[in-house]
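seq/struct pair 1
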Amino acid sequence: MRRFYFLALTLLLSVTMFAQNRATTLLNETFDGNELPSGWSIGGLGAESWYMSPTNNAGGAANELLLYYYPSFDGISRIVTAPIDLTGVESVIFTFKHCLDNYSGEHKLGIATSSDGINWNTGWEQNYATSGQFVVSEAIATPDMGNSNVLFCMFYEGDSYNINNWYFDDFEIFVQDNLDLQLVSIDIPSMTPAGETGLIFTVQNIGKTTIESFTIQPQGPTVGNCGTFNTETFEATIAPLEKMQFTTEQYFTLQPGETYDIDANIVDVNGTQDEDPTNDNLTKVISVTMGEFQRIPMIEHFSSSTCGPCVSVNNNMNTLTANNPGKFTYAKYQMNWPNSGDPYYTEEGGVRRDYYGCNAVPMLFMDGESQGNITQEVLDSYYNKPAFADIRGAFNVEGNTINITADFMSYVYMENIRAFVSVNEKVTTGNVGNNGETEFHHVMMKMLDNAEGNTISINAGEYQRLEFSFDMSSTNVEDMNDLEVALWLQDYETMEVMNSHFAYAYTEHCYPIQNLTAEFDGNSAINVTWEAPEYGTPIAYNIYINNELIEENYTEMTYQNTELANDLYNSGNDNVIMVVALYEDEKTSVGVAKIFTSGVNIIEKAETTFNVYPNPAKDFVKISANNNQISTVRVYNMLGMMVDEIEVNSNEVEINVSDYNSGIYFFNIDGKTYKIIRN
């Protein structure tokens, strides 16, 4: 796996340190601890309804603040900050993220201030009636502005029984500069398909002045096979606190299986430098996939046979799953509350409950995301999302022992990902409680090895195998002939589920092929070979090139393609071959994939090195290349602004730096960056 760096690490560290010490920030709270921050308090009603939750549903990083419906109250509840000195401050910006899981009705959320903790002045309020994820960014100018000891609160007003959960994170209070454009995010997905893409990014005007234009300097992989990015200016009217998304006309060429650092820096705003350059730069790591797979959404369901509201949810889910065979994977965790709880509760179910911050039943999660209700529309929306991992497994039973083999394959490098294996019983009747239900579906009986999953790393195009044998006599299993095994891959930090699949039941594992090779014979043919699986007898193979099915039910283990060879050979891009073994009864293995490189238009791998001297420099800097001509040298200051650009087209150049101010500069020489100290 290769990684490409286009800005000096020193610059990135400097930007990070400056961002953490922004002078105009009065409060920046991310709720990373397990308790309310020091000096914070709960006011009004609902003192026992606020929790710190180990989740990230609001859109920040775990942990986050949670308002839970129980104990229910009807009125106002406040989360109050420690006092803040607003001497000389006329107004502030208050921003936060939140996610509502609504039960019914409308609920009010607001921001207020107080100088005495008794009398509160509302600066903003809004009603919410639908579930969803939101970002608030509001100017607050109350009569408390200018005082030296001001409390801020975020308040909820309504009947808390009519919400399920409300999550909050990333509170920030700051004073607006006059001219300040913030680079909010780089919006190219962290896992993105190969090909061409412009830099997609979002900015927000957090200053007082309307922005009419700005210039951005992207950095990243080769741009359209034509070199590195130039600056690009956007003409757009962005009002104070408004956000906008943009895409550059220049584009990145992303090769499959690679990992890149994509970097962007705002160079100027309204023709000048804005007043806070520390929020002008972002870097994002992009992993380029080799292709995509059909996603099978993973449903995790917290329930109990002693829970009255669980009945209707169970009935709805039974209908939904019956209507969508093959479009879901499922694990249901029976909880030990309310009342005496479900007798099939296990400690492993408790671990998953704590992981998701689940504090009530029923609760549903789809691919790691909380769902108020899973409808056909919701299921279809997840099913239609691309997935970059594939999973196949099988199990058989010998007496009370279950034997499981599972392969987890990825089209992108996944480091320290968690592979989960849940042994469920399809239908149980022995855990009847007091809610009137007589049978329960997809009930988790055992997680192997445990409920925290199995940490694995997977190279792009390859797979990792897990094997288990477990005596189920110690579990609540009622019938060893009624089992299913749910398999899924999950990022344990973000909770994102990459893909899932039920294992093939009561059968042998479908083993994948071995030793796949692919190469060009000039531009006339693509030659592919592989060996049979280590166990099992496939009936045929499916062959994919660049994610397209080229041969179906192919029975040989050597393959040649002459139709695509010339175009792919001359494309200048890497290509991907994948072979899947097919078995009886429409069962398949995971695929095995390889990248094969075209022979023309691929840049020679011989490393070009540059000599840059003297360093430190006073009057001039000399640059020479060992085996190539230098085309362009760009010079950036510590703020990431380009201060000089020199066209060279030779293998040596001398640059006059006598007019540069003393300090640190970064010389970008044909995509490689060097730090230079100017005395």
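seq/struct pair 2
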Amino acid sequence: MRTTANFYTGLFLLLLLSKSILISPLYAEDGYRLWLRYDPLSSEQITKYQPFITQGVVPGRSATMTIVRNELAQGLSGLLGKEVPMSEQVTRDGAIIAGTPDSAPLLQQLSLEDTLRQLGEEGYWLFSTRINNKACTVITANTEVGVLYGVFHFLRLMQTGQTLAALSLSSRPKVQLRILNHWDNLDGSVERGYAGASLWQWHELPTYKDPRYADYARANASIGINGTVLTNVNANALVLTEEYLRKVAALADIFRPYGIKVYLTARFSAPIETGGLATADPLDTAVIAWWKTKADEIYRHIPDFGGFLVKANSEGQPGPQNYNRSHADGANMLADAVASHGGVVMWRAFVYDNNVPDDRAKQAYNEFVPLDGQFRDNVLVQVKNGPIDFQPREPFHPLFGAMPETPLMLELQVTQEYFGQGLHLTYLAPYYKECLQSDTYAKGKGSYVAQVIDGTLHDYPITGMAGVSNIGANRNWTGHPFGQANWFTFGRLAWNPALSAEAIAQEWIQMTFSEEEQVVQLITDLMMMSYEAAVNYRTPLGLHHLMAWHHHYGPGPWIDEGRADWTPVYYHRADSGGIGFDRTTRGSDAVSQYFPEVRQKFNDITTVPENLLLWFHHVDWDHRMQSGRTLWEALCYKYYEGVDTVRQMKEIWHSLEGNIDSQRYEHVKALLEIQLQHAIEWRNACVLYFQTYSQRPIPSGLEKPDKTLDYYKSIERKYLPGS
């Protein structure tokens, strides 16, 4: 009996201990909750908010309104540290009412029509009012998805300490299609994926639906993302078969209540590979009929299917040029197939000839500008932010502003292919903003890229932004904890490109790490310096494409084998006389693809921004920079500044010990050490390599590399993720 009693006493104590661990605020934080943490606010904030929040009123029983009710209940109860009751009637002051005029009849007594008319399908309105003589806060919209967006905004106000008194704000997206592009393969791998395998467990679908799919949709809805392309742009025709369409439909059913449509990549040769045809010629009647039948089949499975994303005649992918047809011919054929269902085609402008051109940066402009106005109304041309390939710094793509009759959508890379992948802390909002704030001068001064892609400059009938996803099966979704900030940033900027990088960073920090003012400011400083550091220790002053083969992780400025425009030497063109790619009117003349004001600025070595100097000019090593240093000295200093900034980032993070949960603190601390060592490798390898051409010493006062150039050339990395 004594032994049995001791056993049960021990078990009871163990259960108590387990319970205390579960409810302790010091539990391990794995990052799964992203920015939707809803942990209790400070007592001061709770006291401030309590009078405004006594109950939630969410009428309606649809799938979306059920999500709205659950989100509001979870958010309010979590942030206030106590349960907030949900009902369908206003019974007390401080009610939060969420619904459309149709789903919440009590809102029909208010005059909402004029404001709601301006908010479109996805906008929302948050305001304070009185209903049934009770002080209330209303979250309303024309659609239930709009209400869901409004609820997320309301909870974000609380998470970031904003006032709820006399609330009056409305918001609608500036861009219609806000889409994540997953470069996920059907075998579970992810091209340029650095956060584990694909989220999509195709072998389990459609029977088993991982609960994580709903969490993914919820996170996207919270930042306004309304579409997801499930498959890699290097497409596999198998996904268009009946077996896989049933699997895709299962995902679409999960995403639909969150306002998210699914899209697929269309392999141009699918009629041959899965349809048994002898050709994929877009003007062939049998091919046209095959795609129309295939589209009808897709829409039977997925009535709200968004459409196709296409990579064609680029990097070996099949396309209409295989049959001497144009990009417009190919895009229009697919657009006609989905048009009656309301679908769109997003045709990527990332193309370059199989034969090495005089300047790869000119290829997309040369191929697409002559086709302006020839595309169907439901076609968007998807253009990367710069003319090469997501390099750490590029000038804005010359296509922006140059195709007034064709909707252009911006493609940004959220996954950090050229920014240290899943190991480096690089906040990409300043990178995105550089492009969005660039002035194309398409209609004179003030013709910004943001105005091109939101449709206001050329009155586009349809608009879009795409982000190449950084999401994988890792528990924390993005690998690096700070990778979550770039996912968050993409959604916030796609909704409103005018938001500032600093404001988005502060929002994310408050929602993810802490509401303490000093902590928020320190992490903001760290994030805001990270982008320029990443450029400086890799590709300063307009250098680009200096990375090693295949994995694109380490430096490789010496690589000169294989296809020329896949090699770094093609781009940096270093020699004894200087360094840089001459794209002026005396060189490849890529500057002439820009409007005159921009062309003149980039063409003149005295007016081109120094951070793009070597993108547009081949410059003498002894050229005097604005600082008074020679080009060689300035190049060295930039490389060293990049490393020094990473050291500063480490110091800032170390100062936060005790203010960040231990699991995420230690994870980021270790990753910053990896980043510092890798930044030193980039710096030393590039400086030593370019020194072989400059024949000039590293400026005094800068630490000399402790290894030789041959050592850095000998580094060989295998099995890196995403390769």
